[in-house]
Amino acid sequence: MDGRFNLDNQLCFRLYTASRLITQAYHPLLSQHGLTYPQYLVLLVLWEKDSQPVNDIAKRLMLETNTVTPLLKRMEAEGILTRTQGKKDARQMIVKLTNKGQELKEKLSDVPETVGRSVLCESVTPETVPGLFRMLDDIIGQLKHDNNESNG
Amino acid sequence: MDGRFNLDNQLCFRLYTASRLITQAYHPLLSQHGLTYPQYLVLLVLWEKDSQPVNDIAKRLMLETNTVTPLLKRMEAEGILTRTQGKKDARQMIVKLTNKGQELKEKLSDVPETVGRSVLCESVTPETVPGLFRMLDDIIGQLKHDNNESNG
DNA sequence: AGTATTTATATCGTTCACGATGCAAATATA
DNA sequence: TATATTTGCATCGTGAACGATATAAATACT
Hints:
The structure is a homodimer. By secondary structure, the first copy, chain A, is mainly alpha-helical. In chain A, helix 1 (11-31) runs antiparallel to helix 6. The first copy, chain A, has a three-stranded antiparallel beta sheet. The first copy, chain A, is built from seven helices and three strands; from the N terminus they run H-H-E-H-H-E-E-H-H-H. Chains A and B meet through helix 1, helix 2, helix 6 and helix 7 of A and helix 1, helix 2, helix 6 and helix 7 of B. Chain A binds a DNA duplex through residues 20, 23-24, 27, 36-39, 53-55, 63-71, 74, 86, 89-93.
């Protein structure tokens, strides 16, 4: 009768599950290089633009600095990047890839395609993906706005 | 040139972000009742069908028992449910809602609608949601299959 | 200049996720 | 019936996420 509480009707559960499972799909590809999925996301950001303060990385990933800081420290301990105090602004920590971090770009070059292929199916095709992206981007934009509003 | 590594091209990042943000949207609604989002998912499962072994709950949520067990223990400590050894099979722990757990169903009755409204936007409407569900279900089905295969 | 506020980052505590592993009960096989 | 395998759940260790809070540097204000 009242399907409000039905798990199968929940958008969030689908997003939560899809996110977990696709992260699991990345796992074998990343773990052989000692990386986790969130660490891979940091690399994507730094490959795009090297030498950024913690805050810019966090904003790009829509994460808090209290999530990103320990993550960066682990990556620093692995020799993937360096964290140095900013010169203009001594509060900032500038994050910069090491050679090892830059070399990972080549080593992981087939990851996007491999994972991309693994999600293609009847309803998810090169034709339908833009529509899916649009909906997810809209949801993200909406929620980012709402969540910020309710905090102040 | 080569957009393979562009964060904006990544499906997983969108799913990961959308999942996090929508979970954050649940937070104020759930935390006033002392619940987390994964705990709310357990309640959805038990409201659907009370008195289930740990394994059935884990399978329904597509989680491992080593994730679900501590979660259930915390909920037991809160007096939301009970865990009792199965009679037919002494290995099973049967999870059953307490009165408090059943009463939460009424107290949380407006949560699905509230969260549902908060994600509606131009491209996500009652008309387009079934298509979105279809794609997410396909992705989940695909990855569940793949991930199980690669383990054995 | 001196004080208040904001900003950038970090620390702490709690709760997931999950790989690896352990253990006891149930089941299959010899 | 004895032994091997499978199954259901739990424990342990690690790495996120994130709310709350702390701290120091930068900025605004008086």
